[in-house]
Specification:
- The complex is a heterotrimer of chains A (about 325), B (about 550) and C (about 325).
- Chain A is α/β, with parallel strands linked by helices.
- Chain A is built from 14 helices and 9 strands.
- Chain A folds into 2 domains: about 170 residues, Periplasmic binding protein-like II (D-Maltodextrin-Binding Protein, domain 2, 3-Layer(aba) Sandwich); about 150 residues, D-Maltodextrin-Binding Protein, domain 2, CATH 3.40.190.10.
- The radius of gyration of chain A is 21 Å and the shape is globular.
- With about 550 residues, chain B is mostly helical.
- Chain B has 2 domains: about 280 residues, MetI-like fold (Orthogonal Bundle), CATH 1.10.3720.10; about 220 residues, MetI-like (MetI-like fold).
- A two-stranded parallel ribbon of chain B has the order 1-2.
- In chain B, helix 5 crosses helix 7 and helix 22 runs antiparallel to helix 23.
- Chain C has about 325 residues and is of the alpha+beta class.
- In chain C, strands 6-7-8-3-9-10 form a 6-stranded mixed β-sheet, with helices on both faces. In chain C, strands 2-1-4-5 form a 4-stranded antiparallel β-sheet, with helices on one face. A 4-stranded antiparallel β-sheet of chain C has the order 13-12-11-14, with no helix packed on it.
- Classes of the chains: A alpha/beta (about 325), B mainly alpha (about 550), C alpha+beta (about 325).
- Chains in contact: A-B, B-C.
- Chains A and B meet through helix 1, strand 2, helix 3, helix 7 and helix 9 of A and helix 6, helix 11, helix 14, helix 16 and helix 17 of B.
Chain lengths: ~325, ~550, ~325
């Protein structure tokens, strides 16, 4: 009996809420506190309420696919370009024609039909031990499989989408066979069974468990501003942007797109345009130490300190296309 | 005059059981679907690892909790030593800490770059490779963590088993020359065995359903495999097929556990069930007992809590204040509602089982309790599919008639979460209230009925007052478990609705453990209250050396 | 084997807070004797039994078994190491072992063939050879009692302790089980202490009987001595209602209202109370009797009458049921 009452009240609540105020329903795989700041600013400026569901990008994508045409989602925000591609391939997004967005976002950081737009950039970089690795000793992803680094490489699990996208980009360059060879070589050089997140790899290098860690740029930048223990660990490693001599460092995007069955499309487009504004870009990027996509938006001091670097300009959609192959390759290579 | 109101009750209870079973069916149904080659790929690469890891984990945790739980329960019921009163309830404290929090704390403490090893290296001057330290992020580490988390279940079961032994049987064994050790091994343990094994079966079920801790420790089990296959590979069907395998194993365990609980009843042939008075320990033995009880409490509760406190002080969650009320409120709301509904449903089902123990009713009740053994993620999978189906149907109808649809009025609202919780946690009141019912002799029911009491009057006027303790206990246990629940919540929750557990998980998986620690402490604190109350509600243990004034 | 008493209790006392359970009890029980402890609830008889077994420790006094001091102010030998066999009130068979395993439990070498043979002999003696494999919960009360007896006897103890061994049996069963038990104990020749609250049982079972009341030992003696020569009113009242008559002693006899009783009194010429059992009185026909029967208690073979005399004395008279009663108006009470 209680359940019936509860169901009825939920039903009424849901129905009633959708009748009132303007809303935009956001499904987001980002979960940084500063994002909420932006959302509140948006609400204040436009009066449109932001309803938020956060979760893992895979989980959200699955939910979107299942919800199908009944989905109340207006926009979907991911933390990886591969997911953008997968979402697009699953028909989650719809094309958006916005002159503003076309102007603000560089072409290689958005979908040609406007199905998705990059929000922020991050590079997958090396952190080398200052004591044990000289500058210039390791310069590319391909170096990681050399015998010199046997038992010295620290990288997180293959289940993480950032690694999958990295392998996806390697497939684009070396083909599937080449990428599998690379994966096997990497696994042979691991200092320990993949465990923990990116920052754990960096801390492990600082503690001496390995010599080189592979991590996203923002994790390291965060450590520079983190707890005393993190700062101490960060002081022991140095940044290396890989492949500066050839194609450039692997760069990934977090992106956003309007959902195919969005009930509030106009609000959704407004939302995205707001996020591409300079102010929002700076806060977004600063909140997580990422690089903004929009030209002219400034970066935080920590990232400035890393210096500028050459980016791999391949379209991020490629990672997504190669994602299934990447996972298969990683499984076969025994990358846990 | 025909009067068969019992039929409606049966139907209602069957409906309830069917509703709870629905998710299981929807998951299993996927066995018939095609997984587009994903299953084949899984079988080639990781399925063997999933099976072996899951089995090893279950074995390790089962044995570990058996040792720790039984030893602690024996020490605390059979002996009297300094601190025994404290330990009797303190040994339950790890229940307040969810396994994923325990994993975060332990790995943080014991990993290579953590304080324990760092201190070791600094004081001895060793560096990597010079010394051996157990890997905490490994199968062994996961076993260690889960044993610390789950031993209280065995401890509780063993204590119950030991306390329900009759003093006369123990005394008889003494008059037959059995020494203390011989008594334990040949009389106490065999008699308490069914209760203990039921506890261990419960632990193994929890272990197989475990996701958070196991994932953090880099161990590939069925549970983590299900997630990766669904979220990582996007193959819902293959994930559901994996879930079905897990369900099969867990179903077996569940059957075992019920069998043990049944045989526990035969082991009390004597009337006098006052447990024997505890023997006093002195000197070295007393301190050994103290130490043996202190270790699980220290490792399973104090250590993680202290670490979290430390982390909070270092760099706690800056937004805790403003968010906390909302998060805690959400957590408390769902936990409270779930506990209430679960207790009511549990009461109805157990009442039916008592009144009309036909095989179909027994089956229905037993089936309704299956959810406990199912991983939260699998439940989420199972809950969403039928909800979507219902919503699809309703929307189609309303759209064709009214050109408007209520949208996702089930799966998009808190209903989905609550439903998922019911499926998962209904087993608790079924067990606890069921045990409470068993303590009421059936002759009491008979007497009431001959005095003209209707079914309702029997329930409210006779059973309810006698079951107060069990009802309260069951509600508390459900409350605590919901507070800690993570995987199903993550998947099923609606807009703008985060619980404490969700927030902590997000922070921790984003490697912001310091910030997560604040929320973690909040969860532990909230979980402490029911645990402490639970220890009070539990039957107070025997009074020390009661004078045999009853039968001189 | 020592020649002294099998059990020696000296000055045993035990209190629980304010409650005195055993009060300065001393008793010697020779080998081979079956000794009954008789008393009501709260008289301390079960406590005494548990003290002998070692399950309780006395506050003062000592216990000696077979010439060896097992417990006194200086030392206390645990139950497990005392040569006693104990049949508890609820039999306490081990529910998880069958009857044979129960009996074998306390035997020193229970796996050997000799032990098994001995156990089977015991089963034969108690008449349960066909129930050797039965589980305790399938045995009837009488069968459980006999298994418990066999189990205790299996260790050939020096002393057997039985705590109300027949009280939970049906009356019809009781006689048979009692017979069997006593026969086995007598054949084994082992000193036995049996606790009971049933006076008839004590008289028929024991070689000697001790009466306990509120923790004190009131009288010890043969059944005949206890019954016919109780040492005081309390001892006498243990066996049923008592008639009290005022009397005056003179010259080796005591004068009462009903006549003279052959009784050697302590202080000649002193007034005192004479206690008479109901069967020592009889109702006769007498013209000037003036007695009236107030109540009749049928007892099967005998009948108890509560009679009001002319002097307003209330007397109990027991007569055989076959003895017919004279007419009401001419009743008188006489000594037999």
């Amino acid at each position: 009996m209680n359940r019936i009452v509860l169901v009825l009240s939920c039903f009424l609540l849901f129905v009633s809420s959708s009748l009132f105020a303007q809303v935009v329903n956001v499904y987001s795989a980002r979960h940084y506190d500063t994002d909420d700041e932006i959302y509140s600013k948006f609400e204040k400026k436009t009066g449109i309420k932001v309803n938020l569901i956060e979760g893992g990008s895979g989980a959200i994508l699955e939910r979107l696919k299942r919800e199908g045409k009944r989905s109340p989602a207006d926009v979907f925000i991911t933390v990886d370009a591969g997911r953008l591609y997968q979402a697009e391939a699953a028909g989650v997004f719809q094309p958006v024609k916005s002159a503003l967005l076309s102007k603000l976002v560089p072409a290689n950081l958005r979908h040609p039909d406007g199905k998705w737009f990059g929000l922020t950039k991050r590079a997958r970089i090396f952190l080398r031990s200052r004591d044990r690795v000289k500058e210039g000793e390791i310069t590319s992803y391909e170096d990681l499989v050399k015998p010199r680094w046997k038992g010295k490489v620290l990288i997180r699990s293959s289940s993480n989408i950032y690694n999958q996208s990295l392998v996806g980009s390697l497939i684009a360059v070396h083909g599937e066979a080449g990428a599998e060879k690379w994966c096997r070589g990497l696994v042979a050089n691991l200092a320990r069974v993949p465990q923990g997140g990116d920052r754990d790899q960096i801390k492990a290098v600082a503690a001496g468990e390995g010599d080189v860690a592979v991590a996203n740029s923002y994790y390291f930048a965060r450590m520079l501003n983190g707890t005393d223990a993190e700062k101490a660990a960060a002081a022991k490693v140095a940044v290396v942007f890989p492949n500066q001599g050839n194609r450039g460092a692997h760069v990934n995007l977090s992106g956003i797109g309007v959902c195919a069955n969005s009930p509030n499309k106009a609000n959704a487009v407004r939302f995205i345009e707001y996020l591409m504004g300079t102010e929002a870009q700076e806060v977004f990027a600063a909140g997580n130490n990422e690089y903004p996509v929009v030209k002219g938006a400034g970066t935080v001091a920590a990232l400035e300190a890393f210096g500028s670097f050459k980016e791999d300009k391949v379209n991020a959609a490629v990672f997504g296309k190669n994602n299934a192959a990447a996972i298969r390759i990683m499984d076969r290579a025994g990358w846990r | 005059m025909k009067s068969n109101p019992g039929r409606y009750w049966s139907v209602a209870c069957f409906a309830l059981a069917a509703v709870v079973l629905l998710p299981i069916f929807s998951v299993t149904w996927n066995l018939t679907q095609d997984s587009e080659g994903v299953w084949g790929h899984l079988a080639e690469t990781v399925l063997g690892k999933y099976i072996s890891n899951t089995l090893l984990l279950a074995l390790g945790v089962g044995c570990g909790t058996l040792l720790v739980g039984v030893l602690a329960a024996w020490l605390v019921t059979a002996f009297s030593f300094p601190g025994v009163g404290f330990f009797r309830w303190a040994l339950l404290l790890p229940l307040a800490i969810p396994s994923y929090l325990m994993a975060y704390a332990m790995t943080d403490l014991l990993q290579f770059s953590g304080p324990a090893q760092t201190w070791l290296r600094e004081t001895t001057g060793w560096s990597r490779g010079d010394y051996w330290f157990p890997q905490v992020r490994s199968l062994a580490g996961a076993v260690f963590i889960l044993v610390l988390c789950l031993y209280p279940y065995v401890y509780l079961a063993a204590t119950t088993g030991f306390l329900s032994l009759s003093a006369s049987v123990i005394e008889a064994s003494r008059t037959l020359g059995a020494s203390s050790w011989s008594r334990f091994w040949r009389v106490v343990l065999p008699l308490a065995r069914p209760s203990i094994f039921a506890g261990v079966a419960l632990v193994v079920m929890e272990t197989m359903a475990e996701f958070g801790a196991v994932d953090y420790c880099a161990v590939d089990t069925f549970s983590t495999g299900i997630y990766r296959t669904w979220m990582g590979r996007g193959s819902f069907v293959a994930a559901a097929q994996l879930s079905t395998c897990l369900l099969g194993a867990v179903g077996l365990l569940y059957l075992l556990e019920s069998r043990f609980r049944k045989s526990a009843k035969f082991h009390h042939a004597t009337q006098r069930t006052q447990p024997p008075a505890p023997a006093r320990l002195k000197g070295a033995r007393a301190w050994a007992a103290f130490a043996a009880c202190a270790v699980p409490v220290l490792g399973g509760f104090l250590l993680p809590v202290v670490r979290f406190l430390q982390l909070t002080v270092e760099g706690g969650d800056s937004r805790t204040g403003e968010l906390f009320i909302g998060l805690a409120g959400n957590s408390a709301l769902v936990a409270g509602v779930t506990a209430l509904v679960a207790v009511v449903c549990g009461l109805l089902l157990t009442q039916l089982r008592r009144r009309a123990p036909s095989s179909s009713n027994l089956f229905a009740v037993r089936a309704a309790g299956l959810g406990y053994a199912i991983p939260g993620g699998v439940i989420a999978i199972g809950v969403l599919a039928p909800l979507w189906w219902i919503e699809g149907g309703v929307n189609d109808v309303t759209e064709s008639v009214l050109a408007w649809g209520p949208g996702l009025f089930l799966s998009g609202t808190i209903f989905a979460v609550l439903f998922g919780y019911q499926v998962r946690f209904l087993a608790i009141p079924l067990n606890v209230i069921g045990a409470g019912f068993e303590r009421i002799r059936s002759t009491v029911d008979d007497a009431a009925r001959t005095l003209g009491a209707s079914r309702l009057r029997l329930l409210f006027g006779v059973h309810l007052p006698l079951l107060r303790g069990s009802l309260f206990c069951a509600a508390l246990m459900v409350f605590v478990d919901v507070l800690k629940e993570l995987p199903a919540t993550l998947i099923l929750r609606p807009f703008n609705f985060d619980t404490l557990a969700v927030r902590v998980y997000q922070l921790a998986s984003d490697e912001r453990l310091s910030e997560a620690s604040t929320g973690a402490l909040a969860i532990i604190l909230a979980g402490l209250v029911p645990v402490v109350l639970l220890t009070r509600v539990l039957k107070p243990t025997h009074a020390d050396s009661a004078p045999p004034g009853k039968s001189p | 084997m020592t020649t002294g008493p099998a059990i020696q209790l000296k000055g045993l006392s035990l209190s629980y807070g304010d409650v005195v359970a055993v009060d300065d009890v001393s008793l010697d029980i020779p080998g081979g004797e079956i000794h009954c402890l008789l008393g009501a609830s709260g008289s301390g008889k079960s406590t005494l039994l548990r003290i002998i077994a070692g399950l309780e420790r006395q506050g003062e006094g000592s216990v000696t078994i077979g010439g060896e001091v097992v417990s006194d102010a200086e030392g206390h030998i645990e139950t497990e190491r005392r040569p006693v066999g104990f049949v508890l009130q609820d039999y306490a068979l081990f529910p998880h072992l069958d009857a044979l395993e129960n009996v074998l439990f306390g035997m020193p070498d229970r796996k050997s063939a000799e032990s098994r043979m001995k156990a089977e002999e015991l089963f034969a003696e108690v008449g349960l050879s066909d129930r050797v494999d039965a589980m305790p919960h399938t045995l009837s009360g009488g069968e459980q009692q006999r298994v418990a007896l066999a189990r205790a006897m299996a260790r050939s103890p020096q002393v057997m302790l039985l705590d109300e061994p027949f009280s939970s049996l049906d009356v019809q069963l009781r006689a048979g089980v009692r017979e069997t038990t006593l026969r086995i104990l007598r054949e084994a020749g082992v000193a036995t202490v049996m606790v009971t609250h049933d006076p008839a049982e004590a008289l028929s079972c024991g070689d000697r009987v001790s009466i306990l009341r509120e923790g004190k030992l009131i009288q010890t003696g043969s059944p005949e001595a206890i019954y016919h020569h109780p040492c005081g009113q309390e001892a006498a009242e243990t066996f049923g209602v008592i008639n009290r008559l005022a009397g005056e002693s003179s010259g080796g006899r005591v004068k009462t209202s009903l006549g003279e009783v052959d009784l050697a009194a302590q202080d000649p010429g002193c007034p005192g109370t004479v206690l008479l059992r109901p069967e020592q009185l009889v109702l006769v026909e007498s013209g000037d009797g003036g007695c009236r029967v107030d109540r009749i208690f049928p007892e099967g073979s005998t009948t108890l009458y509560l009679v009001q005399t002319a002097e307003d004395e209330r007397l109990y008279v027991r007569m055989l049921s076959t003895e017919t009663l004279p007419e009401d108006s001419s009743l008188a009470v006489r000594l037999r």
